[in-house]
Amino acid sequence: MSKGIDSGPAAGTAAAGAVAAATAGAATVAVDGRPGGAGVAAAGLSPGALALRRFRRDRVGMFSLGVVLFFLLVSFGAPLIARLYGKDPNTHYGQRIPGLLTPTGAPVLPNGGVSGEFWFGLEPGLGRDVFTQLLYGMRTSLVIAFAAVLLTTVIGMVVGVTVGYLSGLSDRLFVLVSNTLLAFPTLLLFIAMTPVIDSRLVEPGEEKSALVQFGTLILVLAAFGWVTLALLLRTLVRSLREREFVQAARAMGASRTRIIFRELLPNLWAPIIIHVTLAVPAYVTTEAALSFLGVGILEPIPDWGRMINRGAQLFYSVPTYMFWPGVTILVFVLAFNLLGDAVRDALDPRTGR
């Protein structure tokens, strides 16, 4: 969990080293590990097609993609699955149906109450269905993670490309701001910033809606997550702006906007894609960590981090309750990290395993 906390807000920190080699070959295409234009001409394929072919040959990457797609389908199909299953995440079945929980709140059946009716058992005390809690908790984590990645990627692209191309005073100010943000202890800032943002969005004594809770976490994650991607893109743009094709566009009178969007950005998609694939699992673990610490998603919205927090309190009496969310996070994060490695290797085989 602590690893996710450290890498989540600066997900690009882990991605920076991974994308460095890929970005070095942005203007020089490599074909099955052999860089150069002659290989491309012989292959008769575009750089994107070559990367796709290399990715399809990566068995680990294809399997990881299948696992990630499975998680995405299950999360967005959670309402339909829950309806077919006949349960929902908020009903206290253990309190409504006699014989499911002991007087102390523990499930009567072994393994946390796992049965044909409750596939993953019951939550101790409240008696909620664990399976539907996992389904909807998956939606919570993925919605927050993807929204935060989208926001940080857009901000990082705009800031990094702009200051990298313009240089001068804007570049110096950016370096100062980015270094200042990276110097802060991110976990402590997350814990401190969350109630501050909440106080701006919710009146005292008013209950926080799901939209406010989601928005607060997304804003907190995005406040620091864009910095490393912007630093990486700034470095790449400073190199690309001296290339012949940029000099030619400038000599032909192209505007700065046209040069940035038509000449520079097409050469930056590889590091951006790698950043996204490596940032999503980092944000999932960070969101779960914040909820585990009590500053993330609150009851009654299902959340993986809060399930693990509850499971840790009851680990000695009902260890299986902590097992399900822990294994689910482990499998998803591992699959997405392996997918990110496969995408990196496909875009530049020189970094291959």
Automatic annotation (TrEMBL):
<dbReference type="InterPro" id="IPR050366">
    <property type="entry name" value="BP-dependent_transpt_permease"/>
</dbReference>
<keyword id="KW-0812">Transmembrane</keyword>
<dbReference type="Pfam" id="PF00528">
    <property type="entry name" value="BPD_transp_1"/>
</dbReference>
<feature type="transmembrane region" description="Helical">
    <location>
        <begin position="173"/>
        <end position="192"/>
    </location>
</feature>
<dbReference type="GO" id="GO:0055085">
    <property type="term" value="P:transmembrane transport"/>
</dbReference>
<keyword id="KW-1133">Transmembrane helix</keyword>
<keyword id="KW-1003">Cell membrane</keyword>
<dbReference type="InterPro" id="IPR025966">
    <property type="entry name" value="OppC_N"/>
</dbReference>
<feature type="transmembrane region" description="Helical">
    <location>
        <begin position="212"/>
        <end position="233"/>
    </location>
</feature>
<comment type="similarity">
    <text>Belongs to the binding-protein-dependent transport system permease family.</text>
</comment>
<dbReference type="Pfam" id="PF12911">
    <property type="entry name" value="OppC_N"/>
</dbReference>
<keyword id="KW-0472">Membrane</keyword>
<feature type="transmembrane region" description="Helical">
    <location>
        <begin position="60"/>
        <end position="82"/>
    </location>
</feature>
<feature type="domain" description="ABC transmembrane type-1">
    <location>
        <begin position="138"/>
        <end position="340"/>
    </location>
</feature>
<feature type="transmembrane region" description="Helical">
    <location>
        <begin position="142"/>
        <end position="166"/>
    </location>
</feature>
<protein>
    <submittedName>
        <fullName>Peptide/nickel transport system permease protein</fullName>
    </submittedName>
</protein>
<feature type="transmembrane region" description="Helical">
    <location>
        <begin position="321"/>
        <end position="340"/>
    </location>
</feature>
<feature type="transmembrane region" description="Helical">
    <location>
        <begin position="264"/>
        <end position="284"/>
    </location>
</feature>
<dbReference type="InterPro" id="IPR035906">
    <property type="entry name" value="MetI-like_sf"/>
</dbReference>
<dbReference type="InterPro" id="IPR000515">
    <property type="entry name" value="MetI-like"/>
</dbReference>
<keyword id="KW-0813">Transport</keyword>
<dbReference type="GO" id="GO:0005886">
    <property type="term" value="C:plasma membrane"/>
</dbReference>
